[in-house]
Amino acid sequence: MKNCKNDPQENPEEELKTNFGINQKKRIITLFGGINEQVAEGIVSSLLCLSISNDPIYMYISTFGGEVTDMLAIYDIMDFVKKSCSIYTIGVGKIMSAGVLLMSAGTKRHRTAGKNCIFMIHPMSFEPSGTMLKIGNEIQEAKRMELQCNKILRKETKITKEQMSNIYSQNRNYYFNSQMAKKYGIIDKILN
């Protein structure tokens, strides 16, 4: 884990790296852009640093989504940190794909989105390559991961298995607004 109290006088570049996407004084973490290994590492480190105190953490999210495994790493740490302090998730702009699961993973009653926020859910996609045996193995793993993500999303929201099946059966991006996100239980409040 990164040192939470770097002295900027000692190494200003290290301070910038450590505080990427985090404001420690205001207990704010930002996830803007794609979810990848580097972003996940920064958010996981930030969550762990801020969880030392029991004060709430404010996580602002605006993302098109990204890598499922990196999203799951963030989700697992959010779930762990919520045992000691609340995580307020605030959606702004766009909450899409993997971002929907992270948005819904905030502490219940403290998940908020802007009234003009756009949400999107879609079936998992991947690009297999290699031998037929390897492709078969990748398809099997992708199906397992999609089932796992759906199980988590149903746990964190009011989305039913039937609603999820209906969304996925359309085999396209399913867009909706903040009002619908509240109805689905992805968020609890809409910013006025």
Question: Which helices and strands appear, and what pairs or packs with what?
Answer:
Layout: H1 12-18, E1 22-23, E2 28-32, H2 37-50, E3 57-63, H3 68-81, E4 87-96, H4 98-104, E5 111-114, E6 118-121, H5 132-156, H6 161-169, E7 174-177, H7 178-184, E8 189-191
Helix pairs in contact: 2-3, 3-4
Rg over CA atoms, rounded to whole Å, is: 17 Å
* Average pLDDT figure: 87
Q: Any idea what the shape is?
A: globular
Would you tell me the structural class of the helices and strands?
alpha/beta
CATH-defined architecture: Alpha-Beta Complex
Fourth-level CATH superfamily: 2-enoyl-CoA Hydratase, Chain A, domain 1
Distance between the termini: 38 Å
- Tell how many strands the DSSP assignment holds: 8
Low-confidence stretches: 5-20
User: SSE string, helix = H, strand = E?
Assistant: HEEHEHEHEEHHEHE
Number of helices: 7
Q: What name does CATH use for the topology?
A: 2-enoyl-CoA Hydratase, Chain A, domain 1
Share of helix, binned = 40-55%
The number of distinct structural domains comes to: 1
Q: How would you summarize what this structure contains?
A:
With 192 residues, the protein is an alpha/beta fold. Helices cover 43% and strands 20% of the residues.
From the structure above, extract its key features:
192 residues; alpha/beta; 2-enoyl-CoA Hydratase, Chain A, domain 1; eight-stranded mixed sheet; 7 helices; 8 strands; 43% helix
Q: Can you walk through the features of this model?
A:
Helix 2 packs parallel to helix 3 (68-81) and helix 3 runs parallel beside helix 4. The chain has a single domain, classed as 2-enoyl-CoA Hydratase, Chain A, domain 1 (Alpha-Beta Complex). The protein is of the alpha/beta class and 192 residues long. Strand 1 and strand 2 (28-32) form a beta hairpin. 43% of the residues lie in helices and 20% in strands. It is built from seven helices and eight strands. The protein has helices at 12-18, 37-50, 68-81, 98-104, 132-156, 161-169, 178-184; strands spanning 22-23, 28-32, 57-63, 87-96, 111-114, 118-121, 174-177, 189-191. The N and C termini lie far apart (38 Å).
